[in-house]
Write a structure and sequence with these properties.
By secondary structure, this protein is mainly α. 76% of the residues lie in helices and 0% in strands. It has 23 helices and no strands. 58% of the residues are buried.
Length: 459
């Protein structure tokens, strides 16, 4: 039966039609876009207003503390990943995705009505951090479920391009978040933006969540999970099995993502936005043009992510990644020399060059991760590897970059930090065998359990 599943059949023997697959891809893109819009709108606001509105009493340290709240949420991603992985491997991918969407939307909307420090004092930043933690729990559970819904529904030869559908939710979420914020700077300029303009993008989340919930309800459960359920082969304690048998694989997979995530969070974490618009900094650009430049770079990121997913189906995940790491390294060294010119056009060019490498080290990730782990513990493996990689990579990248610049007065050390993370991702990739096209169904657990780490045998 699993052979049928790999060929495009559901476990009951009916053909998974192109219309079914299009519905899965559409729902995945919409759902992940909404999730990441919510997650990134916070980071964008941190770079623009939260330091002033919620952490102003800290003076010169307000920016560092504000960016640290971006990172705090990452510390709770593993909790979301543990919960989602456990329940996703036991009860299905679809139910978990519905709950993560609701949790993220509720937290985001509540931030939109949160009083500032001037109104309620220290309770304001405390409540802000608590809501950010809920966003982190949701993000920790969202990605793994979205990835498995896309890749486990895909034909064997198209897992890369199908897996790119949840991946493009990140640049789409960034595009939407930056675009809406840029629009609000025009509608509510100056002090109006600080007073109420920044709140509208958060409140818009309510509408987006309703749309995402409606679309996801129409999607069928993953065929691999249905087959596991019908055969009663679901793991009773998937997380325990994961760490007992595949701990080293989780670490290596996490480092692959960390190399991409640290660099990506220069924009998704709000650092470039804050650095370029800081009136007391070396550049001092207006908010609107910088946000539009970030929005434009999200488009190039989206395109290269899709290209990389498609290419990985032809030349393999590992080779595509290696090409991506080289291009990402070029982008890292080009970024700050272009940003520091103070020219918005060159700032966009720096971000666009960077996103080429980011796309190539992100597009194949969904298919790569899905093919690394056995079916019965796959949700746990994918989610926890991703969450750990996010902590090691992007969690505190904006905070680290801010502290480095404050300590040295230069962005040169930030460039070397990002280059180091890129090389770490390359090394982790080189440790892995390419498993493109490996059967995903439960009949092939023995084959899937052979470690993809070079030099290791069956675990």
């Amino acid at each position: 039966m699993s052979g049928q599943s790999q060929a495009g059949f559901t476990p009951t023997g009916t053909i998974a039609t192109p219309a079914d697959r299009r519905r899965v891809v559409f729902a995945t893109v919409v759902g992940t876009t909404v999730e990441w819009y919510d997650f990134f709108i916070y980071a964008t606001a941190v770079g623009l207003v939260f330091g002033q509105l919620f952490f102003e009493p800290l003076g010169t340290n307000s920016a560092i503390v504000a960016f640290a709240t971006v990172g705090v949420s990452f510390l709770f991603r593993p909790l979301g990943a543990f919960l989602a992985g456990h329940y996703g491997d036991k009860f299905g991918r679809k139910a978990v995705l519905m709950w993560t969407l609701i949790l993220m939307g509720a937290a985001t909307a509540l931030i939109g009505v949160l009083p500032t420090y001037d109104a309620i004092g220290v309770a304001a930043p405390i409540l802000l951090v608590l809501l950010r933690i809920l966003q982190g729990i949701s993000a920790g559970g969202e990605w793994g479920g979205a990835v498995l819904m896309a890749v486990e529904h895909a034909p064997k030869a198209k897992r890369g391009i199908f897996g790119a559908s949840p991946q493009i939710g990140v640049p789409l979420g960034l595009l939407l978040a930056s675009g809406v914020m840029a629009l609000m700077t025009a509608i509510a300029p100056g002090d109006q933006f600080l007073q109420w303009g920044w709140r509208i993008p958060f409140l818009l989340s309510v509408v987006l969540i309703l749309v995402g919930y409606y679309v996801r309800r129409k999607v069928e459960e993953s065929p691999v999970f249905i087959e596991l359920a019908e055969r009663k082969e679901k793991a009773s304690m998937p997380i325990v099995q994961l760490f007992r048998k595949h701990l080293l694989l989780v670490i290596v997979a996490a480092l692959v993502f960390a190399g991409n995530n640290a660099v990506g969070y220069m924009t998704t974490g709000g650092y470039i936005q804050g650095y370029a618009t800081n009136p007391e900094g070396p550049i001092g650009l207006e908010r609107g043009p910088v946000l539009w430049a970030v929005t434009g770079s999200a488009v190039t990121w989206l395109i290269t992510t899709l290209i990389a997913g498609w290419l990985s189906d032809r030349i393999g995940r590992r080779t595509t990644y290696i090409i991506g790491w080289v291009m990402q390294l070029v982008g890292v060294f080009a970024l700050f020399p272009l940003v520091n010119t103070g020219d918005v056009g060159l700032l966009f060019a720096g971000l666009a060059i960077l996103t080429i490498g980011l796309g190539f080290t992100y597009g194949p990730q969904a298919a790569l991760y899905t093919e690394l782990f056995p079916a019965s513990i796959r949700f746990s493996g994918v989610s926890i590897s991703y969450a750990i990689g996010a902590i090691a990579g992007g969690a505190f990248a904006p905070t680290i970059a801010t502290a480095i610049v404050q300590a040295t007065g230069s962005t040169q050390a930030v460039t070397w930090y990002l280059a180091g993370m890129t090389l770490l991702g390359l090394i982790a990739t080189l440790l892995l065998r390419d498993r493109s096209g490996i059967p995903l169904g439960p009949d092939h657990e023995e084959e899937q359990s052979v470690s993809p780490i070079r030099g290791l045998a069956k675990v």
